[in-house]
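EI: anyone free to look at a 116-residue chain?
SC: sure, send it
EI:
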Amino acid sequence: LHPKAMEIINKYKSSGLYLFPILSSFHKTEQQKLNRIHKVIGKVNKYLKSLGKELKIDKKITTYVARHSFSTTLKRAGVSTSVISEALGHSSEKVTQIYLDSFENTQMSNAMQNLL
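SC: here you go
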């Protein structure tokens, strides 16, 4: 791992099962875990929105946007789909290819709007 990534991991690692301790022994069922993850993502998105305002970024910034930006940047840098797939935790390269292709379709549509 990159030294900066290791620095972040070392800062937040706990003795529990998870890198970021958002789940605890309280969260026993899958539904409890999903609910907690949903709540935390909402909170992170709220903070990202606040940061976006502070930085005068006129686009909505979310964890979803960050994931898209991450994978698109890797693709444009020539990183193989298999590496991107692994980084995103997809079950197969085919899933990643569909995911990446969906961005290109959006970009193509936006580009075509400029012709109208």
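EI: The mean pLDDT is 86.
SC: 👍
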